[in-house]
Amino acid sequence: MRIRFSERADKDYAGLPPYVRKAFAKQLDYLLTNLRHPSLRAKKFDAPENLWQARVDRNWRFYFKIEGDEYAIFAIIPHPK
Question: Between 9 and which of 4, 5, 53, 81 could a Cys-Cys bridge form, CB atoms 3.0 to 4.6 Å apart?
Fold first, then answer.
């Protein structure tokens, strides 16, 4: 599997604090090796759109789709508590 960032995800990533970038990089490694890794807590967020949500840390989430052999990252945002 490969990772592809949308324009929005690129902008989101550019604005992340350094500690969130580091955590996000770790979570992407987990995503590439095991979608069901416990720390990701990945789940379908919107089934009809095939949109998934996964955890960066307690306060941040990222949203992605699985498209063929790619994970298409769409957004990295603070958790809407």
Answer: 5
Q: Is 12 exposed, middle or buried (0-12, 13-18, 19+ CB in 10 A)?
A: buried
**Cα gap 45→64, rounded to integer Å:** 9
Across the beta sheet with 51-57, the strand order is 2-5, 70-78, 60-67, 51-57, 43-46
Q: Return d(Cα 22, Cα 20) in angstroms, integer.
A: 5
pLDDT digits (tens, 9 = 90+) for 30-65: 999 999 999 999 999 999 999 999 999 999 999 999
CATH topology of domain 2-78: YaeB-like fold (3.30.2310)
Whole-Å CA distances, 10 to 22, 41, 47, 67: 15, 22, 24, 18
Query: Domain locations in the chain?
Result: 2-78
pTM: 0.93
